[in-house]
Amino acid sequence: MGEIMRLSRYFMPTLRENPAEAQIVSHRLMLRAGMIRQSSAGIYSWLPLGFRVLKKIENIVREEQDAAGCQELLMPTIQPADLWRESGRYDDYGKEMLRITDRHDRDMLFGPTNEELITDIFRNSVKSYRDLPRLLYHIQWKFRDEVRPRFGIMRGREFLMKDSYSFDLDYEGARRAYNKMFVAYLRTFARMGLKAIPMAADTGPIGGDLSHEFIILADTGESEVFCHADYLDFDPMMSGVDYEDDLQPVVDEWTRLYAATDEMHDPVAFAEQVPEDKALHTRGIEVGHIFYFGAKYSEAMGATVQQADGTEVPVEMGSYGIGVSRLVGAIIEASHDDAGIIWPEAVAPFRVGLINLKVDDSATRETCERLYAELSAKGMDVLYDDTDVRAGVKFATSELIGTPWQLVVGPRGVASGLVELKSRDGDVNEEISIDAAVTRVSG
Q1: 38, 236, 390, 434: which has the fewest C-beta neighbours closer than 10 Å?
Q2: Distance between CA 90 and CA 82 in Å, rounded?
C-alpha cells in the first residue's frame, strides 16, 4: 500500500519568503518546503517531508551496496580516542574532530569516519586468508566540526554517510573490490536520476590511480569541473552487470576520457585530449568518493591474516563513501526551477500531489477520495491537498515541494468525468479520464 497523507494533517511548515541565511538554491528550497530546520550552526532536524527523501535515497544506496556483495552492520557514533592514537590520526585530524571526555576521563570522539573502528572489528575477528575478501558497510551519522558550516546540509557539521570498507589479501583483490564499488556507485546515482561522472581524485602519499570522486553536474556546484561531453551519453545502469565478473573493462571505459575537478585539472592535457566541440567546462558537486589505501591502517593497527604458507600479512583495504544527506541538497541543486524543486521520481517524497480545488463540493471530494484509494491500492505515495485555501496557493505549494505528478480535481472537470494531469517537469499537461489518470501516474 502506498501512503496517503492529507495536507491538512501533515506537518510541513512551508515559508513564502526566501530565508535570509540561505545562500544557495537547495538550502533555500529545503527551508521553504519545510524539509529541514536548523538547530545550531550546520546541524539540522529533518522534518517529515525531508526525512522521506532522505530515507528513499538511503534505501537506493543500501540496495546497490547489497547487490555488490557488501554486508551491512552498524558502528557507533562515539569512538574511543585510543584507536585513533594507534593509527596516528588522533593528533593529525585537527579541529574538525569533536573530542569528548566521558565521566571516567576517557578520551572519546564523535566519529568523522570509521577506518579505525572497522579495522579494530576486523583484526579481532578475522585471522585467516580463507575469510577474505570482505566488504562491510554502514549508514551512520558523522560529525565534522567545520570552521564555517554553510550551504545548509551541503556543508553541515552533522551528516548521514554510507561508508564501506574492503578487506583483501593482496593488491589484485583490493582492485577487484574497488571496481565493484566503482560500478555500484554508477548505478546508485543513476537510479536517483543523476548523471554522476567519476573523476580522478588525489591519492595523496599512497599514489597510484585508485581514487575517484563521483561528481554530478550542476550549475550551482561547489567545484569547477572539466570533462569530455561524451560522458553524458554513457549508460551507467549497465543491465546484466555481474559483480563476480572482471569489472576492469567497465572501469576502463568510464575512465578513458578526460574528467577532472579544478584541483586535478591539467589544461594542456584537456586541450590535447578533448576536441573543442566536446569540451565541457561547468560546475559540479561531489556526492561520492572511493579510495584504495592499501595497508595504511592494517599495518599501523596490526590487522594481519595468515596466508596459505603460514606467514602473516597486513590486509589490503579501501574505503568508499556516499554522502546520503548531502545528496538531498545535491539533487535539488541539479533539478529545480524558479517555482521550486523538481524531484526525480525515485527519490520524490510523494509521487503524486492530489489537489482538490473545491473542498466543500461533494462530487469533487468523492472523486478525490476515489483517486486517493485507487492510487494507494497501487502502492503510490500520495499527498492529498484537502486544505481550504485558494487554488493559486495550492499550485504554488505543489510546485515548491516538487511532486513528479499533479492531479487537479475541480467541479467543472468532474462534471465531464475528467481530471487535469500535470507533470512537474512540464512535459505533460492534459485533461483525461480518472481511469486514464490512475494508469498514467502509476505506470
Answers
A1: 390
A2: 8
Q: How far apart are CA 334 and CA 221, in angstroms?
A: 8
Q: What is the mean pLDDT of residues 227-247?
A: 92
What's the pLDDT score for residue 191?
96
* pLDDT greater than 90 at residue 201: no
Q: How are beta strands 405-409 and 4-6 bridged, if at all?
A: unpaired
- DSSP per-residue codes, 88-123: THHHHSGGGSEEEE-TT--EEEE-S--HHHHHHHHH
CA distance 320 to 179: 11
CA atoms within 13 Å, Cβ hemisphere of 215: 29
In this prediction, residue 150 carries a pLDDT of: 86
pLDDT at 229: 96
Element (H, E) at 180: helix 171-191
Residue 237 pLDDT > 90: no
Locate 40 and state its grid cell. Answer: 545550531
Cβ–Cβ under 8 Å, residues 317 and 114: no
Is there a contact between 161 and 140 (Cβ–Cβ < 8 Å)?
Answer: yes
pLDDT at 106: 97
Rounded to the nearest 5 degrees, what angle is found at the Cα of 159, between the Cα atoms of 157 and 165?
120
Q: For residue 58, is pLDDT > 80?
A: yes
Please count the other Cβ atoms lying within 10 Å of the Cβ belonging to residue 13. Answer: 12
Q: Is the pLDDT of residue 4 over 80?
A: no
Q: Give the tens place of pLDDT for each residue, 95-108.
A: 999 999 999 999 99
β-strand 382-385 against 211-217: which pairing, if any?
unpaired
C-alpha 32: how far from chain center:
21
The DSSP result for 349-393, as a single string, is S-SEEEEES-TT-HHHHHHHHHHHHHHHHTT--EEEE---S-HHH
Q: Reduced to 3 states, what is the DSSP secondary structure of residue 156?
A: coil
How big is the CA angle at 47 (ends 44 and 49), to the nearest 5 degrees? Answer: 130
Residue 362 CA: distances (Å) to CA of 88, 356, 359, 366, 411: 70, 11, 8, 6, 9
> Which pLDDT score is estimated for 133?
97
Q: How many residues does the chain have?
A: 443
User: How much is the pTM?
Assistant: 0.95
Band of the pLDDT at 205, cuts 50, 70, 90? low
**Closest CA relative to residue 67, chosen from 77, 59, 56:** 59
Mean pLDDT across the stretch 300-328? 97
- State the DSSP code for 232: G
